[in-house]
Amino acid sequence: MKSSLTLRKLLETEYEITDKGYNDDTCLRYVGDEECFYETMRIEIEKKWGRGFLATQQRLADQLDKEGKGYYEPRENGMQELLDRYLAENAPGRLGENGYSVRVKISPEKRIIDLEVLSGGLFAEEPIPRNSWVYTFLKGALDNIPISCEPARLRGKPIESLIYLHAWF
Description:
Order of helices and strands: HHHHEEHEEE
Strand content: 15-25%
Distance between the termini: 45 Å
């Protein structure tokens, strides 16, 4: 089966089937591991939604792509630059001290609906507490810059999306 971003997003948004990347918590792989994982997933998916479900979804995704209504990734449209500028003006003397990844959930109407801050970047296991001064500071920073992002699109319509920004201070 040929996978596409549109197919993955259809499965994720409409059926809550996510493939966050095969990972057995090691960097070691044995020949056949990934095939076994995906075969197990296919069997379980077919048990729940029926035989041929994935092929039908792939045809739908291919058709949406052909019509220009497939999945289009969200865009931050300069928000990173605005955040960097805000930090340079409001966190002087601290720039570059610590790195954070800011995961911003935006609505189809381009509003921020949730925010998580990860210390150390994208690979941090848990977001920092929402009552911490870092979270409060970054939330305030985002409240003070224009939100110019574009949400992702699927089926030709905007959908709830995640935008990742980075902060060093």
